[in-house]
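Recall that a protein's primary structure is simply its ordered list of amino acids. Everything else, from secondary elements to tertiary packing, is in principle encoded there. The following example makes that idea concrete.
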Amino acid sequence: MKILLLKLGILTLILYSFDKSYSNENFILREDYKKNFSEDITSFQNEINKILKENKIPGAAVALVDKNGTIWAQGFGFTSQHSRKKVNIQTLFSNQSQSKIFTTLAVLSLVQEEKLSLNLPIISYLPDMKISDPNGGEPLKIITLKHLLSHTSGFAHDAPVGNNNNSNFSFSEHMESILKGTWLQFKPESSVSYSNVGIDLAGYILQLKSKMNFDDAVKQKLFIPLEMTNSTFSVKQYLQNKNHAEGLIDGIKEPIINYSFIPSGGMYSSVHDMAHFLQFVLNKGVFKNKKILNENILNEMETIPFPIQNQKEGYALGLWRGIRNHDLYFSHTGRGFGFVNNLEWYPESNIGIIVFTNKYDQKNIDFEISHKIIDKILEKRKNNEFQEIQKMVYGDYISSMSNLKIQKSVEKNSIHLIGDINYGSFGNSIKKVDLILNYIGKNKFYSNELRDYFIFEAKGPTGVPSLQRETDGFIWFLNSSIKTCNSKDSINSNSYEGVYVLKGYGQNRNYRFYIKEGCPFFEDYSLRKINLNTFISPNGKIVEIQDKKLYFANLMMEKED
């Protein structure tokens, strides 16, 4: 009893500390997650504190987000190596290369306003620009904003003036060195090479067309509409904010410098503000019921612009598009000058995360923290989803050409599939299978053997449960779910029962219509009643009976006397 009271006391203390921390902007845990998520949060807290201690990282901040807003946000550790000032959810970190996402979005806002075009050559905006091209030709007539934002322009990573080795120049000095004639590495669109120069050019064009300096343009187009009140591309504002983190490399404080490559790496933000951004992208351009960007504009951003055949992963516009654990995600890291950060969102699973740390190393600590949290959340969701699907999925399935059976599997979150699989251009090639399909979430199963996905729908195209193969859309329909009829499907009269003959080409085939426990069946098909003499099979075939004739999928059969 004492142990139980002690545990309850500890849980109460934890929950009380959550609420107390929330009041000083160091902790958010959304009400709908408190009941079932508190133990997971405690585990995440312990894990993060352990990672920081083992890797001698001064501080970190995390926010977990879905379409409805921040699920959990918290600061850990300290703003610098020697400071005792604690990180909270409003602490500013350097985003580094995550800045590219916001530069891209600001450019796209002008595309939406038809002040810029992704597909016009950049010479239209920069008539005095020069490029040195080893391949000859006129690349400025080819390179577009789409090339710049997807790293396919051919520009090098760094500019001659203002780069990762020596950045303490003004933005105008930096841009002048690019505009007067840098060298291309390859022909535009022929390859992908990560380029700060390309993003900085896009940011410079934004500055020209918006008639504002770059920082103000992004502020007006994004930060203000998304209520990212502390976010900035101004190092001066970052330093004026007393609640900012300082970067650390090899135990040495990284000096604060005035980045010259501002559009590609000069942003500062907090997990509080970045949570607003994640809510915005998960809602396809809408934040707090206000449309900031059209969905088609965001779809453009999330699309790989010049893909090779069957390419599923790669750099889109200002961000990475990838597949992780069968799940589509978008992301961008930020690494450099004493900071390591990771930003990811999974649109189909409605989840996103931002992790900031203020020590540079090569251990991918930001990935470790992000993925531990995301994987735990999605695994928990998956378990709950599968428990619901189990109630509906088991039974016999039919198609026009083959039959399957789905039964329980001994493996966790999986089903056992036995029977026939159709292949070929018209599904006319059939082979026997005995497979385990693993549940991966969102009503989807995956076969490691077939390397194929199967989608379960509780109400398929004909209103009954169905299983659809993703590669070609082939569908099987649940046929054995009817053990007892609904009153609307039951038949009291047995006058339709009997054998019906299909005549043709000198050969007759017999089919049987019968009633079992009040339920109508035609051969192996369980039927639902449409009206007094018309029925539908699970795969959509119509059975109609009149005047001793039965029509099955338009084929007429006569009742045998």
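Residues 1-24 have pLDDT under 50 and may be disordered. The first strand starts at residue 27 and ends at 29.
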